[in-house]
Amino acid sequence: MSASHQPDGFIERQLRAQGFSLVAGTDEVGRGALAGPLVAAAVILHPDADLEGLRDSKLLTPKTRERMAAVVRERAVAISIVRITPKVIDRRGLQRSNIRALRAAIARLDPRPHYALTDGFPVPRMPVPALSIKKGDRVSATVAAASIVAKVVRDRAMRRLHPRYPAFGFARNKGYGTAEHWRALRDQGPSPVHRLSFKGVGADGTIVAESLEDWDEEAVASSSLS
Predict the structure, then answer these.
(1) Residue 193 and residue 37: Cα distance in Å, rounded?
(2) Which of 89, 74, 78, 75 is nearest to 35 (CA)?
(3) Which residue ranges form the domains of the chain, and what is each CATH number?
(4) What is the residue-wise DSSP string for 48-103?
(5) pLDDT at 220 over 70
(6) What pTM value is reported for the model?
(7) In whole numbers, what is the pLDDT of the chain averaged over residues?
(8) Average pLDDT, stretch 78-85?
(9) Nearest in space to 205 (alpha carbons), one of 94, 84, 85, 40
(10) 3-class DSSP state of 120
(11) Could you give the C-alpha distances from 192 to 7, 23, 86, 109, in angstroms and in order?
């Protein structure tokens, strides 16, 4: 794992130097999953927090993610978590749900941040000034911390769903489209926690999971690291 993938907090320090003393990062997990919630987290880190090993959640093993999530919770000024259910995703649409989740995660932080960093795309109508950063979870410490918290929360949720719907292998694939998961969908049809707006899941689904940014990395990680 390259050291270049470890955020050093440079962006946050630059913002603090400009007077934005409370800088939050926000990120979501589960965009490309066929089942389960979309989870967004927002984190404000202490300026002097030493988070050795902090990286984009997809670059960490499950055990390391759990450990880093505990460290982030210990050393954060504030953390918030937002969960969007499959039914809401189907009703509102994935992108709209994603934007609302990120915006809500920032809005629920206490204390309120002075500035927010997001991963990848701009989030309109943020409650505070905000900047979107390409591959933000690999260059911003607060975004990386948020990605870890969101990933751990969502993975735990999918493991809890596994005993209710064991045929889909949620404990292993976390709801992503592995061969095992697609086979179960063909054999049994979707469960109540599936996203019917996704192509191949619901009869009228149009969202192609493989086209979404987190699908490839997450599907590989969930099948090889779990």
Answers:
(1) 8
(2) 89
(3) 3-159 (3.30.420.10), 162-225 (no CATH)
(4) T---TT---GGGS-HHHHHHHHHHHHHHEEEEEEEEE-HHHHHHH-HHHHHHHHHH
(5) no
(6) 0.91
(7) 90
(8) 98
(9) 94
(10) coil
(11) 38, 38, 9, 31
pLDDT tens for 108-138 read 999 999 999 999 889 999 999 999 998 888 8
Q: What kind and span of H or E run contains 200?
A: none
Mean pLDDT in residue range 67-78: 94
Q: Which two three-digit tokens encode residue 108? A: 């629920």
First to last CA, the chain: 18
C-alpha–C-alpha distance, residues 132 and 124, integer Å: 10
Nearest one of 143, 178, 144 to 158, comparing CA atoms: 178
Span of 41-50, 100-109, 126-135, 207-216 with lowest mean pLDDT: 207-216
How far, in Å, CA of 150 to CA of 132, rounded? 18
Q: Can you read off the two tokens belonging to residue 147? A: 């990605």
Q: What letters, b where the CB count within 10 A reaches 16 and e where it falls short, cover 148-157?
A: bbbbbbbbeb
207 sits in the region (left: phi over 0; alpha: psi -120 to 50; else beta) called beta
